[in-house]
């Protein structure tokens, strides 16, 4: 009886955490709340150098992949990338999603610095990050930019990420009949899928909870066999989601769109940009520089 009570208490704890994170992403961390129209350009020359991050998708993608390379180089948590890019996207929204290449690079360097401070036990020296710019930006430049970003974002630097939601959602599964190794496999596969979503601007306007649920559902349907996870347990999990999280019903269409997009991303990563094309070459952006030939917005 005591064991059953403990299980129910833990289940309620995870459900409440999901609800709390969901409220945060719908209010204080809602991307649309940060958008401001771009300021008028001071002159034609400066306007010609501006990058519209909603049109020039390659700039943001390069920043994402470079950030992953830095995180992997220093052996930090990949969730830190999701936090850094969230800060980057929200700050750029306050600028109307327009900036020049130098500002984009400085902002990405600074949001990574902030994300490491709030999410990692291991700390990276500010001077070390400044060196990644090959002296284009100094430690003082990063500190000054940090103050601007924190002010613009009202110091809201702990966004709930898709990885946070994935972990909590998996804890809602009927664990009595699921091995810990299978739970771990589901988590790792869903996390991998969510990591791909970080680099795709399509998901900026979609809640992390939606991306997380779409990732988990895709893994259950595409990666986990019925032998490992029988249909009965899948149905129980689906019922848990629909009965405990009313937002799923409201977001059903968004979840569907995200599932389709995530499947495309996984296909591209594993097989190439289009069916029949060769697999993509492994990216080789060096974590020792953000201004080399491999990284220019």
What does this structure look like?
The structure is a single chain. With 297 residues, this protein is an all-alpha fold. The chain folds into 2 domains: 13-29 and 160-297, Orthogonal Bundle (Cyclin A, domain 1), CATH 1.10.472; 32-152, Orthogonal Bundle (Cyclin A, domain 1). It contains 13 helices and 2 strands, in the order H-H-E-H-H-E-H-H-H-H-H-H-H-H-H. It has helices spanning 2-26, 44-49, 57-73, 79-94, 101-119, 126-131, 139-152, 162-171, 180-198, 208-222, 231-244, 247-250, 252-271; strands spanning 51-52, 98-99. The protein has a two-stranded antiparallel ribbon with strand order 1-2. Helix 5 (101-119) crosses helix 7 (139-152), helix 8 runs antiparallel to helix 9 (180-198) and helix 8 (162-171) packs across helix 10 (208-222). The termini are far apart.
Distinctive features:
disordered N terminus; 13 helices; 62% helix; 297 residues; Cyclin A, domain 1; mainly alpha; two-stranded antiparallel sheet; 2 strands; 1% strand
* Helix content class: 55-70%
Structural class: mainly alpha
Number of strands: 2
Rg measurement, Å? 20 Å
- Give the number of helices: 13
- Main sheet properties: 2 strands, antiparallel
* Annotated CATH homologous superfamily of the largest domain: Cyclin-like
Distance between the termini: 60 Å
Q: Give me the CATH fold name of the largest domain.
A: Cyclin A, domain 1
% residues in beta strands: under 5%
CATH class of the largest domain: Mainly Alpha
Name the CATH architecture of the largest domain: Orthogonal Bundle
Order of helices and strands: HHEHHEHHHHHHHHH
Low-pLDDT regions: 1-5, 275-288
Mean pLDDT: 86
Oligomer: single chain
**C-alpha geometry:** elongated
- Strand order within the widest sheet? 1-2
**Overall tally of structural domains:** 2
Protein name: Cyclin N-terminal domain-containing protein
């Amino acid at each position: 009886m005591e064991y059953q009570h403990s299980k129910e208490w833990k289940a309620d704890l995870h459900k409440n955490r999901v609800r709390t994170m969901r409220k945060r992403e719908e209010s204080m961390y809602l991307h649309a709340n940060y958008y401001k129209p771009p300021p008028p350009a001071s002159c034609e020359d400066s306007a010609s150098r501006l990058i519209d991050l909603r049109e020039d998708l390659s700039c943001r993608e390069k920043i994402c992949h470079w950030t992953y390379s830095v995180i992997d180089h220093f052996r930090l948590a990949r969730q830190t990338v999701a936090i850094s890019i969230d800060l980057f996207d929200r700050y750029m929204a306050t600028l109307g999603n327009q900036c020049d290449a130098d500002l984009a690079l400085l902002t990405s360097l600074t949001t990574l610095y902030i994300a490491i401070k709030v999410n990692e036990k291991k700390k990276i020296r500010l001077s070390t990050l400044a060196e990644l710019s090959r002296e284009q930006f100094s430690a003082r430049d990063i500190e000054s930019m940090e103050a601007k970003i924190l002010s613009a974002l009202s110091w809201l630097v702990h966004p709930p990420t898709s990885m946070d939601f994935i972990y909590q959602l998996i804890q809602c599964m009927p664990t009595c009949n699921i091995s810990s190794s299978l739970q771990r496999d589901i988590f790792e596969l869903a996390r991998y899928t969510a990591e791909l979503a970080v680099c795709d601007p399509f998901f900026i306007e979609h809640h992390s909870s939606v991306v997380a649920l779409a990732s988990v559902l895709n893994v259950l349907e595409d990666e986990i066999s019925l032998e490992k996870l029988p249909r009965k347990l899948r149905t129980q999990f689906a019922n848990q989601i629909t009965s405990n999280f009313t937002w799923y019903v409201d977001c059903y269409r968004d979840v569907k769109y995200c599932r389709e997009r995530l499947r495309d991303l996984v296909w591209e990563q594993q097989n190439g940009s289009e069916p029949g094309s060769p697999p993509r070459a492994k990216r080789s952006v060096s974590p020792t520089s953000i201004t080399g030939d491999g990284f220019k917005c």
